[in-house]
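Explain the record.
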Amino acid sequence: MQHDPKILIHTADSRGGGDHGWLKTRHSFSFAHWFDPDRMGFGALRVLNDDLIMPESGFGTHGHENMEIITVVNTGEITHRDSMGSEGRILAGEVQVMSAGSGVLHSEYNEGPEVLTLFQIWITPNVRNVTPRYDERTFSGETVLGETLLVAPMDSGMDALLIHQDAYISRIILDAEHPLRYTLKDPTHGVYLFVVDGSIETYGHHLSARDALGIELVPEIPLTAKEHASVLVIEVPMISD
């Protein structure tokens, strides 16, 4: 039986966040001191933070457990250090994943001269207390049209960064001459579309930069744009394990 799509809209100005001087942040879902009982996540997606971090500042050493943490660097560079012994610089266009699992300490710091901007995404895992792990990768730039798979499940065999959840994160670049249809990996999943820049149309809704749309009960999502647009597509189970 075919059902009508279930759609929610989160406009850019409806997000929470704060200005801490060294950090300017916007939260798509309840986080830190911002709480909205209607914005506790979207299925297994728990956090989507849009951060701007000034030079010579960042997040000091702190701990996490049982969370899949994905960082997408947009401009600048971030220096990562953790209790597993991983250390490195992640540059614009690169993505890192960290499975916190049974517990890990880490710091994320902007040691460079430029302002750092990034998206931080948290996804609840489908298995708890795994051995923590870390990985990073460079992906093609923001001018490459089409769909790039960034993150996929551990057992998928796909060429992407791997996490402990049946979830997928893709970056889609499109323009007026190149519409695109995103096909769900699993039609029981939901998809959270987050417009990075530009504007798009889908299912009769117009989304501008930093607007988001959550959608369920569809096998695919048509995307059109009048000009260049960049979109993060986060496909997740709607009930996390």
Notes: The domain at 6-236 is CATH 2.60.120.10 (Jelly Rolls). Residues 195 and 231 are 4 Å apart (CA to CA).
